[in-house]
What we know:
CATH superfamily: Decaprenyl diphosphate synthase-like
Number of strands: 6
Shape: globular
Order of helices and strands: EHHEHEHEHHEEHH
Distance between the termini: 12 Å
Bound molecules: 3-methylbut-3-enyl trihydrogen diphosphate, magnesium ion
Strand content: 5-15%
Strand order of the largest sheet: 3-4-2-1-5-6
Largest sheet: 6 strands, parallel
Structural class: alpha/beta
Mean pLDDT: 95
Amino acid sequence: xxxxxxxxxxxxxxxxxxxxxxxxxxxxxxxxxxxxxxxxxxxxxxxxxxxxxxxxxxxxxxxxxxxxxxxxxxxxxxxxxxxxxxxxxxxxxxxxxxxxxxxxxxxxxxxxxxxxxxxxxxxxxxxxxxxxxxxxxxxxxxxxxxxxxxxxxxxxxxxxxxxxxxxxxxxxxxxxxxxxxxxxxxxxxxxxxxxxxxxxxxxxxxxxxxxxxxxxxxxxxxxxxxxxxxxxxxxxxxxxxxxxxxxxx
Length: 249
Ligand code: IPE
Ligand code: IPE
Ligand code: MG
């Protein structure tokens, strides 16, 4: 088992945290930090394309982030809109498939239309699956999957006794992709903050104090190096893993 375990994660999920503190340290408004964070987003995408990572999921706006001051929420929405106008063509040229993950109905029309257009335009791309989690919450994700199954059962299309981890998992977000192998959180906090609760079950967790706008390729390379030293056991013993993947393989 696991002889084929790649040293390069198939899927990286990142909580891009620390924009506000980065700006505050410079005596600038928090929105300044969010703008600066865009450069790090580009770095992360380039890094994944270069390393041939299959999927990158970025936490851009949580379902709880609506509770921030209205000026910050407005600035973030404007930034998303501008970023979509500015970046989608280039991402498309690089073969990036863009998907927005979360409850998109909460977004107003111009933004939502741009998101849907970006997803349509890039739908057939294969180089990298880029998921941007917006108005996303891990609990919401599990609840919406449960609701879909309940609706199918109510229609008589599904026997409730057949519901198991596989059927529920198939209705959670990102079910079309391998689950994240590597979870990265920048900004020094050691928590998941309602990100991919279901999908992260066996992800390797990596935390760095670097604030998101300061993240560059070297910082991501360090995370990857750390990942390649981990022994993933998936519930087995170390001896079982060693037997399945002899040293040097
Ligand atoms: C992450 O940075 C970006 C979003 C949550 C939108 P923060 O804005 O949370 O930055 P800090 O944690 O306050 O420094
Ligand atoms: C998580 O960061 C959400 C995003 C990065 C989009 P937060 O800054 O919102 O998380 P907490 O409040 O520190 O847990
Ligand atoms: Mg934060």
